[in-house]
Amino acid sequence: MASTSTTLLPSTSTHFLDRSFSKSSSSSSSRHNLQSLSFSSSSTLGNKKLTPCSVSSSVSKTFSVSSSLQSPTTYKQPPSWKKLCNDVASLIPKTTNDNPKLNPIQRTAATIIDAVEKAMVSHERRRHPLPKTADPAVQIAGNFFPVPEQPVKHNLPVTGTLPECIQGVYVRNGANPLHKPISGHHLFDGDGMVHAVRFNNGSVSYSCRFTETNRYVQERELGRSVFPKAIGELHGHLGIAKLMLFNARGLFGLLDPTRGLGVANAGLVYFNGHLLAMSEDDLPYHVRVTQTGDLETSGRYDFDGQLKSTMIAHPKLDPETRELFALSYDVISKPYLKYFRFASDGQKSPDVEIPLDQPTMIHDFAITENFVVVPDQQVVFRLPEMIRGGSPVVYDKNKKSRFGVLNKYAKDASSMRWIEVEDCFCFHLWNAWEEAETDEVVVIGSCMTPPDSIFNEHDETLESVLSEIRLNLKTGESTRRPVISEQLNLEAGMVNRNLLGRKTRFAYLALTEPWPKVSGFAKVDLSTGEVRKYIYGSGKYGGEPLFMPEGSGDAGEDGGYVMVFVHDEENVKSELQIINAVDLKLEATVTLPSRVPYGFHGTFISNEDLLKQALC
Questions:
Q1: Does residue 52 have a cis peptide bond before it, meaning omega lies within 30 degrees of 0?
Q2: Cross-referenced InterPro entries, in alphabetical order (predicted)?
Q3: pLDDT at 70 over 90
Q4: Do the bridges between strand 150-153 and strand 168-175 make them parallel or antiparallel, or are there none, so unpaired?
Q5: Which residues have C-beta within 8 Å of that of residue 112, sequence separation ≥ 6?
Q6: Cα separation, 588 vs 168, whole angstroms
Q7: Which tens digits make up the pLDDT trace of 105-149?
């Protein structure tokens, strides 16, 4: 098996926190004077005239925001790091219960609730130490630690040659908690931050901005964390108490939970002129890329009033029809699962309710040319477990995993075909397609064991096995086999997005070793099982590899480039690497002006699509 490693030229030094962050930053102040985009075709979407969008606007801010967290002592850091962190943290606005906007009853209620919460958390932590899956010292250590916002920086240093076809912006989402966790915290709980690298005729810029969710805006104003963290805090009796205190704050008007609770930190998709930042606990948020390469949150996006429920973070964009397919799940009441789609112009279909006996963790799904493929697996939600002192996210060993296959345009779920697949939990599905000669739907995903290891602490070592699952629509039977012969943890990645839902030969997947760090990526031949590895180098780790097709009609399936953020932990430097997807040779390295934490999922938006961005 071929293996490719890189030796990069030394890049210029970066700091953990950029010294340019101040209230008087010209880059920051100019950002908020932008009322509309000034791309040459920004007032139209194709040939369609834009109509006003239905969004919930976020509160505007007039400065760059940095995290109030302090650096973990376990991280190798420059001597000036503590002072830098303190300096930047001091820029965050602080509020107290003496807020003049509060009436005397509200101030009294706030003081009592805060005191109860502090005593409760202190008591609980003495009795029950945090598990690793909820311990902030573990979950946000090292390069998982948050960074402040970075106003756009232009003319970044480039080593090598940028491919001419890369014109547009690479955006990647991630979790970046604004405030120090009060109690438990899971990596997935952090506030959403989008990192953007803009390519424009040889010039490269970088910026990163928080997605201004309802949760983020209110916590920024309050100066601390008050919304419950879905994974890190909602465990056992303390989780129940946190929910009660949160509801009490809402009843007294100390915060507003009605405009969404989500963090928008997981997925990104560009659809119908909108870059959408998503997490499955809320509606998407519309983020705009400005002409300068900066980022602005337009607001919570409900597709012009059509979307009434949450949407998972991995909707699927059909490369031929340009339709967007999505799911929504509910952990409290039926229907626990709904399926819907959006036409290329943004018009939503009626919801299709998919009957499930219990709420199930469904982070991802798949599409083929004619079907949607929905996993109903063994990780489920059981809120009563909190009463017994446990986690509401449970691995149900007695439940049999199954996949449901439904026509994309079905008006109800009566024709859905459920096929059982033994001992299978795929957190992500990379692709699926139909093979008419065998009446099978082929699904490519990474099967994870233990299934709930991301959410609950285990002594058993996590394994994520790239698997081929065949669902026979004629017999109702299934098979599952590992795609490759060696044991590699392969998580986070993609196939050529121009072939999504069609048979693909190659997948580009992160080598999550040592877990949860990513030491490189693998180009996997799904038909032969051949693996070619690209390793970032000693002490260097990255994230999800994004495959960008070259765009030429003559290019093969792997004709294109892989882009990935890479961090040198020893030298505390971050960069964007661009690798030729055919031969896995490094083409170019962009030196970034500040540290980029390890994150989640991303996408690439071409200059042509940037010109079609909606204004709201």
A1: no
A2: Carotenoid_Oase
A3: no
A4: unpaired
A5: none
A6: 16
A7: 888 888 888 888 888 888 777 777 777 887 888 888 889 999 999
Nearest-angstrom CA–CA distance, 264 and 285: 7
Residue with tokens 């999800």: 544
Mode of pairing for the β-strands spanning 3-5 and 531-535? parallel
Residue 25 to residue 30: CA distance in whole angstroms: 9
Residue type present at position 285: Y
Asked if 94 and 29 count as a contact pair (C-beta separation under 8 A), the reply is no
Percentage of the chain beyond pLDDT 70 is: 83
Beta strands per DSSP E along 486-596: 490-494, 506-511, 520-525, 531-535, 540-542, 546-549, 560-568, 573-580, 586-591
User: Quick check: 537 and 8 in contact, CB under 8 A?
Assistant: yes
Instruction: Outline where DSSP puts E strands in 436-559.
Output: 440-449, 463-472, 478-482, 490-494, 506-511, 520-525, 531-535, 540-542, 546-549
| Own/partner pairs, 33-37, CB within 8 angstroms, 24+ separation | 34/290, 34/296, 36/615, 37/288, 37/290, 37/291, 37/613, 37/615
> Does 123 belong to an annotated binding site?
no
Count of CB atoms situated within 10 Å of the CB of 168: 20
The phi and psi torsions of 469 (rounded to 5 degrees) equal -115, 125
Residue 235 annotated as part of some ligand binding site: no
Q: pTM here?
A: 0.83
461 to 90, 390, 420: CA distances (angstroms): 41, 21, 26
DSSP H or E segment with residue 109: helix 104-127
d(C-alpha 444, C-alpha 368), whole Å: 12
Sequence-ordered list of residues with C-beta below 8 angstroms from that of 40, at least 6 positions apart, any chain: 611
Instruction: Using alpha carbons, select from 167, 165, 211 the residue that is nearest to residue 192.
Output: 211
Q: How far apart are CA 565 and CA 596, in angstroms?
A: 7
Specify the amino acid at residue 23. Answer: K
Asked whether residue 128 is marked as a ligand-binding residue, the answer is: no
Q: Which residue has the tokens 């030969």?
A: 505
Residue 447 · residue 467 · CB < 8 Å:
yes
Confidence of residue 19 (pLDDT cuts 50, 70, 90): very low
**Burial class of residue 497 (count of CB atoms within 10 Å of its CB; 0-12, 13-18, 19+):** middle
Q: In which residue are the tokens 């007032």 written?
A: 43
Helix (H) or strand (E) holding 298: strand 295-301
Q: Are 196 and 220 in contact (CB under 8 A)?
A: no
